[in-house]
């Protein structure tokens, strides 16, 4: 069995509300679902058939038990130290607007266990709160610096959270530093507008591609699809028309499918995206857009399996 892809970042529980009303389950308690962008990516990868290990931290409280059951149940391997007795599991209150678009308020502590690279690991993915919230952000940045000469592909999804880092200038500086240590960077159009207001996604991509290591930038555009810009050129993918239930976890499903698609084309590991053509990028981004579309047709961060993706859109 091949070594797992390593995902680093927060795992937390989403408490879902609509407007000022918290969604309740059948027992009258707040509706809670496992979440956290990196954890969602790990689950998405595992469901798409990619062996995955998650470095995170949560407790053995009821929220932590819910997270553990979700991750193990989806085949995600947890790194040693990720579950800590006595640690209070982090939460996010997700508020849905009338269109099903989520905004978040966080109650989170982030300090990962020791980070290390397993022999044969094809890719390391990180992003979101884990890359900006101290002390864990420094630990991730220092770890990525050790991978400069390692035969592994690094992917980054900053997934900007203005409620955590309200200053776009300092946040962009942190993103630039991490992006320069990454082979592929994925952003949303909302990330772009927060981090570099007034700048076009294309110009942001070009700026990130000025770093020697960065080979590709992919920018999602919600219902309009996504664009990918590499050293070979630019591609655009249109999103399929769907009935949106909510957008929770859609970006994470996209990221997982992007990594899985690159893995399927043997572009990860020591190759570090060498050989990524415009045609292969088009194929991979199309696969990711369609995975995100499936997630948007159901409640919460519920990424598709490989079988569901094939059944919906064809092999």
What does this entry look like structurally?
The protein has a single domain, classed as UDP-N-acetylmuramoyl-L-alanine:D-glutamate ligase. The protein is built from nine helices and 14 strands. 50% of the residues are buried. The strands form two sheets. Strands 6-5-1-9-10-11-12-13-14 form a nine-stranded mixed β-sheet, with helices on both faces. Strands 2, 3, 4, 7 and 8 form a five-stranded mixed β-sheet that branches. With 315 residues, it is an alpha/beta fold. 32% of the residues lie in helices and 20% in strands.
Summarize the structure.
The protein has 315 residues and is of the alpha/beta class. It has 9 helices and 14 strands.
Q: In CATH terms, what is the architecture? A: 3-Layer(aba) Sandwich
> Do you know the CATH topology?
UDP-N-acetylmuramoyl-L-alanine:D-glutamate ligase
> Strand tally, please?
14
Mean pLDDT value? 93
Give me the strand/helix succession.
EEEEHEHEEEEHEHEHHEEEHHH
């Amino acid at each position: 069995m091949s070594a797992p892809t390593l995902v680093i970042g927060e795992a937390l529980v989403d408490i879902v509300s609509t407007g000022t009303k918290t969604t309740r389950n059948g027992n009258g308690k707040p509706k809670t679902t496992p979440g956290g962008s990196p954890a969602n990516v790990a689950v998405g990868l595992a469901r798409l058939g990619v062996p995955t290990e998650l470095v995170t931290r949560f407790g053995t409280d009821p929220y932590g038990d819910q997270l553990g059951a979700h991750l193990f149940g989806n085949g995600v391997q947890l790194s040693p130290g990720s579950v800590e007795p006595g640690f209070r599991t982090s939460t996010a209150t997700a508020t849905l607007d009338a269109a099903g678009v989520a905004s978040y308020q966080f109650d989170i502590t982030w300090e990962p266990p020791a980070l290390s690279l397993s022999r044969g690991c094809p890719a390391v993915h990180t992003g979101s709160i884990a890359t900006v919230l101290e002390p864990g952000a420094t630990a991730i940045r220092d770890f990525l610096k050790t991978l400069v000469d390692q035969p592994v592909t690094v992917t980054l999804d900053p997934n900007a959270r203005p409620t955590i880092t309200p200053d776009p200038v300092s946040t962009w500086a942190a993103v630039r530093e991490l992006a320069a240590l990454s082979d592929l960077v994925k952003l949303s159009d909302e990330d772009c507008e927060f981090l570099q207001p007034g700048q076009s996604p294309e110009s942001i991509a070009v700026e990130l591609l000025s770093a020697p290591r960065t080979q590709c930038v992919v920018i999602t555009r919600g219902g309009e699809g996504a664009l990918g810009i590499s050293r070979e050129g630019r591609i655009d993918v249109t999103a399929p028309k769907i009935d949106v239930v909510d957008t929770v976890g859609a970006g994470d499903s996209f990221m997982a499918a992007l990594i899985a698609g690159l893995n399927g084309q043997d572009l990860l590991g020591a190759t570090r995206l060498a050989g990524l053509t415009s045609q292969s990028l088009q194929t991979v981004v199309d696969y990711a857009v369609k995975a995100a579309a499936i997630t948007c047709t159901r409640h919460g961060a519920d990424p598709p399996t490989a079988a569901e993706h094939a059944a919906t859109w064809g092999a």
